[in-house]
Amino acid sequence: MNPLHQELKQVYHSDQIEAKKKTVNQDPWRLTYHVMPPIGWLNDPNGVCHFNGRYHLYYQYSPHDAVGGMKYWGHKSSTDLVHFEDHGIKLYPDEPYDLHGVYSGSAYIKDDMIHYFYTGNVKHLGDHDYVSSGREQNTIHAISTDGGFTIEKQACVIGADEYPKEFSNHIRDPKLFKLNSHYYMILGARDREDKGQVIVYRSSDLFNWTYQGVFAGPSPDLGYMWECPDYFTLDGHDVLLMSPQGVEAKGHEFQNVYQSGYMIGHLDPENITFTPEKDFKELDRGFDFYAPQTFEDESGRRIMWAWMGLPPDDDNIQNPTIERGWQHAMTMPRELKIIDEKLYQLPLEEYKVLRQDEKEMNLTISGHQEVKELNGEVYELQIDVHRCGDELSIHLRQDTTISFSKKSGKLSLNHGKSGYGRDERIIELDELKQVRVFSDMSSLEVFINGGEYVFSTRVYPEPGQDQISFSGEGCIHVSKWVLASTNERVS
Ligand code: FRU
């Protein structure tokens, strides 16, 4: 173990850190069934995989500062995707090739081992813009031979000086797939003309990698950098997920500071190039969603996690948990499906184990109607719309409203004060058939029409603000369950 590793590990296991964990554990805004950081800051999901019956979720973790900072890989695991155990830190920034951050990466299972590839971030002192000079983003290989609990760094397999010269210093977030007898690694990139692209390397053994070329991009409307690419086939389609930066807002779309979305297209198996056949579509239309990563589980489902947050480039949007020693969380894991050439996201069946205290009713809404017995803070609420008038709204928590207007063909999510700067997000929608809400102490995930659209958002209501009411006109069937806490308290 190198001395820096030892030192960083000791700091993380100090009494000071233990005291901070206690403060976080006492926060009423703490989430009860979502993965969140033990202390400090969390961003991207990394290395997601299912190995010998256990799900692994590693994540970008800055334990020492709730507003971000040096990145480590934190680790949680689960056997059911609902109850998680915390395993502390698995990768520290302790080698010359990753000294300024163990950045995002992924896992690949081969021969009973988990191989990890991640970006080692290094910043050089001097007068640099850290885009065209001053930054190394090395691709590092690491291996676990004990099922994901101990990870040994192996080597820098692509050094920053080996990337093609037409790209800037920003090349990161490796993700692997296999095709015929070769392994391919895609990486997000920013070229020297400030266009986002995905590049691809090829290997026959996971240890030696050769540059293959550009996998996808650039695209005139899709920004200057494509982070976190992910390629897979699903329901007979080739799909590329990515998180582009620098996309202009267009109508109600692309309202967040950065986007995350997908393109359905075609992979050319000879040249290993991906050609989109459909426009880039956002995966989530809420305020807090970025850097998703997927994996195929042992039952063949394509499951996605995302960071339920965004880089802090928008001063209007605040997260008041910073003062309580933590910030950000993961979305619930979601199953992906393609239906009519659209990517749908479905809450996992597994989460039904948390359901308690079921309430079920048919309601005819005419004007404003409170339904006190539905009130709650942590719950799943399913509303099936049998008949809808011109307008129908659902009010929940302190001041959040989901409103559908048949006349304008729009559905909106609005927050008041409890949104801390999150105001309104809108989608175009002809017909409202179903709304499914997963509410946690400071988050909402809203699935519309069976997962055709999703809104993920953080929200910070005052304690006890748990109203549920309806307004407008319509006939609905409501089911509501209190969701049990998965009770992961980090000790
Ligand atoms: C996305 C991202 C990645 C990078 C990581 C650093 O949120 O910027 O591109 O690897 O976060 O934490």
Automatic annotation (TrEMBL):
It is an enzyme of class 3 (hydrolase). It is found in: Cytoplasm. SMART domains: Glyco_32 (SM00640). Keywords: Carbohydrate metabolism, Cytoplasm, Glycosidase, Hydrolase. InterPro entries: ConA-like_dom_sf, GH32_Enzymes, Glyco_hydro_32, Glyco_hydro_32_AS, Glyco_hydro_32_C, Glyco_hydro_32_N, Glyco_hydro_beta-prop_sf, Suc6P_hydrolase. Residues 353-474 form the Glycosyl hydrolase family 32 C-terminal domain. Its main location: cytoplasm. Belongs to the glycosyl hydrolase 32 family. This is Sucrose-6-phosphate hydrolase. It comes from Pelagirhabdus alkalitolerans.
